[in-house]
């Protein structure tokens, strides 16, 4: 834990294991609510000096941190790959993406501006300023533990806020080392703190702390609701990046080869454990057989194995036994309700946590696999007659994070995308994430945006000044 500039290794040991084979990767020490409060106290003390530090100086420290992340990328990626069961190239990409967030917001730190409004009353002037909102609780999941934490703390620190981070116990090691890059880069004590420990106990302590003004949470919609309820007690601003139920729509004029390549990325990246994953394939009649046939063939050819193996496999393990059980029960429920498995079944490793990559057809719309976030390498495939039916199916969900549409007719795809109820839409693009892009959801996928100018604004308050001359 990092509290008030001190790295601490007291507390109860908690072992972190490799999802590929169960071997020990390392350990963290679990703290308590008292540690969370001490971290928030430190962040509260550090707030005035940090928020008053010239933006240029804040930016320089963040740039130095980004440089250290890049310098240490190989070690960080290795640790991340082991603890989260990632394929090494994906772990490397995540570390590079984390550094990019820090760099982008360091550059952006110097740009936020207010406005001077033309005055309408004689003897008065009106202006708005943007100022740092206060102490931020940054609570993050295990699926992209480094880049998701980076895209919270980079804009928060750039804006002049101070932070207490709590990270998932399932993959806490690489992100701890990522945070070390900030202290090694010269971030003043107390500006960034890190606590490990029981989720509910630590986040409640943070949300009850009088200095915490923002809770920036990424995780499931279920836990997001709890956080929002707790945040309401002290009217803490909730920034929520929650679950997704991404529709991947293939219209009948799509470039099928490109759509299949996109589908493999959108479904199987990070073994399907991505909030923007393709969750449901919705394919128009005219290209259904060709698209689904190709996708099944390619899925059956995907190799499965430890993400550190050479050659690198196409799919790794899932995070833990709970995930194996959750995905398998969705698939089994759909099969029992009359769905058919299109992909082959293969022998899975006995040690570690593995799930069959699976595509199913004839899944009832009411079965969990057809209407809930899967968060694993399985998906339902639906055949539709036209774009209107595709749209109805795509929007038939309470979630609205990412969606995808594939068509060679950009005008048609554009119009379709305009009616998709999502915060992020990939038009002929399976990888829409970028530091300069405002990412976030609509409906029950969350509140607020991360990345881009908007991502910085979330950590500021507008302060309006009326000045009598
Ligand atoms: P989760 O909701 O179970 O956990 C998220 C974090 O909250 C973890 O650190 C966990 O320890 C903590 N937590 C769990 N119970 C809590 C409680 N009662 N009070 C406070 N904190 C609690 O989610 P997960 O399994 O870690 O991550 C997967 C989910 O996150 C998926 O639903 C996925 O879609 C979502 N996600 C969303 C985005 C996005 O940008 N919208 C990105 C990544 C993941």
TrEMBL record:
Pfam families: Aldedh. InterPro entries: Ald_DH/histidinol_DH, Ald_DH_C, Ald_DH_CS_CYS, Ald_DH_N, Aldehyde_DH_dom, Aldehyde_DH_Superfamily. The keyword Oxidoreductase applies. Residues 11-463 form the Aldehyde dehydrogenase domain. CDD domains: ALDH_F5_SSADH_GabD. Keywords: Oxidoreductase. It comes from the Bacteria. This is NAD-dependent succinate-semialdehyde dehydrogenase. It comes from Streptomyces oryzae.
């Amino acid at each position: 834990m990092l509290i008030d500039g001190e790295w601490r290794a007291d507390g109860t040991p908690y072992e972190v294991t490799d999802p590929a084979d169960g071997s020990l990767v390392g350990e963290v020490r679990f703290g308590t609510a008292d540690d969370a409060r001490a971290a928030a106290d430190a962040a509260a003390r550090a707030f005035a000096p940090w928020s008053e530090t010239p933006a240029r100086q804040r930016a320089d420290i963040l740039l130095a941190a980004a440089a250290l992340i890049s310098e240490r990328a190989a070690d960080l990626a290795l640790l991340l790959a082991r603890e989260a069961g990632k394929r090494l190239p994906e772990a490397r990409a995540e570390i590079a993406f984390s550094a990019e967030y820090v760099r982008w917001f360091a550059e952006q730190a110097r740009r936020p501006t207010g406005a001077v409004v033309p005055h309408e009353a004689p003897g008065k002037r009106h202006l708005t300023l943007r100022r740092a909102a206060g102490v931020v609780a940054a609570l993050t999941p295990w699926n992209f533990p480094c880049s998701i934490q980076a895209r919270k703390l980079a804009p928060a620190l750039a804006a002049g806020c101070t932070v207490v981070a709590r990270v998932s116990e399932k993959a806490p090691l690489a992100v701890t080392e990522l945070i070390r890059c900030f202290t090694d880069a010269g971030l003043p004590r107390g500006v960034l703190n890190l606590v490990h420990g029981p989720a509910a106990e630590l986040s409640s302590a943070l949300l009850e702390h009088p200095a915490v003004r923002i809770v920036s949470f990424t995780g499931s919609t279920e836990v997001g609701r709890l956080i929002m309820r707790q945040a309401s007690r002290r009217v803490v601003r909730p920034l929520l990046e929650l679950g997704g139920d991404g529709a991947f729509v293939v219209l009948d004029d799509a470039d099928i080869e490109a759509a299949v390549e996109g589908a493999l990325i959108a479904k199987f990246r990070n073994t399907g454990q991505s909030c923007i994953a393709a969750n449901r394939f919705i394919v128009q009649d005219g290209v259904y057989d060709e698209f689904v046939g190709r996708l099944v063939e390619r899925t059956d050819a995907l190799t499965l194995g430890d993400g550190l193996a050479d050659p690198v496999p196409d799919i790794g393990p899932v995070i833990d036994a709970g995930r194996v059980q959750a995905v398998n029960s969705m698939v089994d429920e759909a099969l029992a309700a009359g769905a058919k498995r299109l992909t082959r079944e293969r022998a899975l490793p006995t040690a570690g946590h593995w799930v069959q990559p699976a595509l199913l057809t004839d899944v009832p719309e009411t079965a969990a696999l057809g209407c809930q976030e899967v968060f694993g390498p399985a998906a339902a495939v639906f055949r539709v007659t036209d774009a209107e039916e595709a749209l109805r199916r795509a929007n038939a969900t309470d979630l609205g994070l990412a969606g995808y549409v594939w068509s060679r007719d950009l005008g048609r795809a554009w119009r379709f995308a305009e009616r998709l109820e999502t915060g992020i839409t990939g038009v002929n693009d399976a990888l829409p994430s970028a530091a300069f892009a405002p990412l976030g959801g609509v409906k029950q996928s969350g509140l607020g945006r991360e990345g881009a100018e908007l991502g910085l604004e979330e950590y500021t308050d507008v302060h309006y000044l009326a000045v009598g001359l």
